[in-house]
Design goal:
Helix content: 25-40%
Largest sheet: 6 strands, parallel
Low-confidence stretches: none
Structural class: alpha/beta
Number of strands: 18
Number of helices: 16
Distance between the termini: 54 Å
Shape: globular
Radius of gyration: 23 Å
């Protein structure tokens, strides 16, 4: 099958994206032409021509909306398969891992279903040769100046609402040395910004070293010449490693940014969620983080409508958000996931209309807070990395902004800049989800 064209469709989170990038490298190593048709016109280009074409969809199975998106994408490509526009359709990832028994009968147009990590078999089926031992390498689909760095797979937390451990299995850390070697390789390719990701950063190393080693890992990454920014995603509040804060405070290339999912503040709800932390402990942790890393921007995720959340618990959550003034915050309404602890033990009795009303109120409050925080940056000078050039401006991000999910900075075209450049920008205007300014020398 050498010479055939393979399109990779990656759905869901950045952890999935890294898996897709590794698969692309594996396919490339056996002589297959790989494309990532996510830009305008790229899919049409892939479908043209007389060469044999195959599509691989890397699915997400985390929550209802993500599962629906994955199913719709599979069905869209299944129609193209029936119409003869592609010659093969293959599905992998979290959704097919979770529903490997049910899906083949539901969507017979798919040629073969794979789990989350059996990429060598997928490559072997496509190429008719086994890929052999492929080093930890990947083809980047992000702009060449930034990359996601996945340091572990799986999760040992078993929160009541979460199906991730059912899909990915127990927590498995990558060795420090392997991760540092990957960082060096990516720096040699032009990567300057590393967004460190795992389902739970704060458990990193326990399975390998007998203790949490996220601080040592971040230190080792920051020592690599050419690493300009390190940003940390998906920490867990229980048993938070305080030595990580010392690294964040002392290393200039570690961004003052922490993504830590808190989910709720009510003791009743936290207990039901099996989060193993109290509201008071959560507040104390946040106070300590802000004290030890001045100026840090905290991103969190909250959930409304979990069993046990009455009006009193929801109002406690609203008061918590008012007092904490999170720089970045997302939220979602609880959706029961089969086979989880919550699905087995709790009654999902809160009406969807109530969940959505609470979600709207919470996000409206956060939008007010975000606008005020953004306004406070007017007149300041921020270091910005340039992501792209548009017709009337450059678009970049500060250290407080992760790709895709956080605000951007619009920069006047008074100087010549390229993607991957750093520049200082004086902020002249602020909006809830954007800053605007001009480059200063």
């Amino acid at each position: 099958m050498t010479g055939d064209k393979i399109a990779i469709i990656s759905l869901g989170c950045s952890k999935n994206l890294v898996d897709s990038e590794r698969l692309m490298r594996m396919l490339d190593s056996v002589g297959l032409e790989v494309s990532y048709p996510d830009s305008p016109g790229a899919e049409d280009s892939f479908l043209r021509g007389r060469r044999r074409k195959h599509t691989v969809i890397n699915t997400c199975g985390f929550i209802g909306d993500a599962k629906e998106e994955s199913i719709n994408e599979i069905l869209r490509w299944a129609q193209l398969r029936k119409a003869g526009k592609i010659d093969g359709l293959y599905v992998m990832g979290c959704l097919s891992e979770r529903y490997k028994e049910e899906l083949p009968a539901e969507i017979p147009e798919v040629d073969r279903w794979y789990g989350k990590t059996d990429w060598p078999q997928l490559v072997s089926d496509l190429a008719k040769i086994h890929p052999g031992s492929v080093p930890y390498d990947r083809i980047l689909t992000t702009p060449r100046h930034h990359a996601y760095l996945k340091i572990a797979e799986g999760c040992d937390r078993f929160c009541a609402f979460c199906a991730i451990p059912l899909i990915t299995g127990r927590y498995t850390s990558r060795p420090v040395e392997e991760i540092v070697d990957e960082v060096k390789m990516l720096v040699d390719r032009g990567v300057k910004e590393f967004n460190v990701i795992a389902q739970d950063l704060t458990s990193y190393g326990r399975d390998l070293y007998g203790k949490t080693e996220i601080a040592r890992l971040v230190e080792a990454i920051s020592d690599v010449e050419g690493v300009e920014w390190i940003r940390l995603h998906y920490a867990y509040p229980n048993e938070f490693p305080m030595d990580l804060l010392d690294v964040m405070a002392s290393r200039p290339n570690v961004c003052r940014y922490l993504d830590i999912a808190l989910q709720h503040i009510s003791d009743n709800v936290l207990t039901n969620m099996r989060r193993h932390i109290t509201g008071a402990e959560t507040r104390a942790l946040l106070d300590e983080i802000r004290r030890r890393v001045p100026g840090i921007h905290i991103r969190t995720t909250l959930m409304v409508g979990f069993p046990g959340e009455g009006e009193r618990e929801f109002e406690e959550l609203m008061d918590f958000v008012r007092s904490q003034r999170f720089e970045r915050m997302g939220a979602f309404a609880y959706c029961e996931e089969e086979d989880t602890y919550a699905a087995r033990h709790y009654d999902d009795s809160i009406p969807d209309s109530v969940k959505q009303q609470r979600l709207s109120r919470l996000m409206a409050l956060q939008e007010e807070i975000s606008a005020e925080i953004q306004d406070g940056k007017t007149g300041t000078v921020q270091r910005v990395i340039i992501d792209r050039e548009e017709e009337d401006c450059y678009v970049g991000r500060t250290q407080y902004d992760s790709p895709e999910v956080d605000p951007e900075v619009l920069i006047e075209k008074t100087v010549s800049l390229r993607p991957g450049d750093f520049c200082n920008v004086k902020i002249k205007a602020a909006y809830p989800f954007e800053l605007a300014g001009e480059a200063v020398i």
